[in-house]
Amino acid sequence: MQAMQYITAAILAAFVGYVGAWYTGAIEGNFALLLFMATVVTGAYWLGERLVFLPRRRRAAQALQDAAAQRRAELDRMGIQKVDGDIQEAQGRILMQPWWLDWTAGLFPVIAIVFLLRSFLFEPFKIPSGSMIPTLLVGDLILVNKFTYGIRLPVINKKITDGTPVRRGDVMVFRYPPQPSMDYIKRVVGIPGDEVAYLNKRLTINGQPVPTTALPDYFDQDAMRYFKQFEEQLGDKRHRVIVNTDAPAFVQGASNFQGRDQCRYSVEGVACTVPQGHYFLMGDNRDNSLDSRYWGFVPDENIVGRAFFVWMNFGNFKRIGSFN
Known about the structure:
Strand 9 (225-234) and strand 10 form a beta hairpin. The chain is of the alpha+beta class. The chain has 2 domains: 2-115, no CATH class; 140-322, Umud Fragment, subunit A (Ribbon). It has helices at 2-24, 31-77, 88-95, 99-102, 108-121, 292-295, and strands spanning 122-126, 141-145, 171-175, 183-190, 195-199, 202-205, 208-209, 212-220, 225-234, 237-243, 263-266, 269-273, 278-282, 298-299, 303-312, 321-322. Strands 1, 2, 3, 4, 13, 14, 15 and 16 form an 8-stranded antiparallel beta sheet that branches. 23% of the residues are buried. It is elongated, with a radius of gyration of 29 Å. The two termini are 56 Å apart. Helix content is 31%, strand content 27%. The chain contains 6 helices and 16 strands. Helix 2 (31-77) runs antiparallel to helix 3 and helix 2 runs antiparallel to helix 5 (108-121).
């Protein structure tokens, strides 16, 4: 058992070291991989507890009880009726889980539930930037549906069911193509085969202008200024966008991404043909969003899920609810 203490201490130290290195920026962490490994390791300890360690402790406790019963029987034959001592406390100590099982097998049910929920049903995210204003604000805590677009295996993100096709207007969380360890959130404006153009701050899809209605100006409390606000309709979904009329229309600093030959940049903006198996996404804060205009298309294998609900914003409880 002493060897298991050292092994467990080394495993826990490795987990703590990984998290610490990730937190300090020494390595690029992967939470999905970390959670998967934690599930596997604690699951192995949980099985070991059920199949090996607990039966071993029970046998030791039973052996103690049998020895005590044999001793009482011998004392009875000698005519000694009163026997001092109680073995229940000793049995309790024998049956008690050691610390190294408390911190592994004891945590497995909770870790397994979190892993399954996060991998196949819903995953929480926090909005870190204003690229999706006014739909989503900085500090919004959102839920992402992981099965709408098809169930994917955790870590490797391989799709195993088809699910519902991605639709224009969906708010999608995805792995940022230039750095897949990072999760981004944007709105889908183009699906495979679409000709998407954003010229002079006007969105058109397949040559048809997206229906737009002017709304009262939007006041951004962080920027302390007003922006032009519009309601767009992509498919059957209506959502709001804001535009900075002082910002230039042309896309400045677009990278040399894969499939850039499918895009045409000009002083008016950009027009792209979306390749098969890819999507074109933009932020609702059109002039403050690093999106497909700059780094290209999102491949299907990078999809994480569809964002649909704000479950908390500690600075504004009125934010709680669903959104388009």
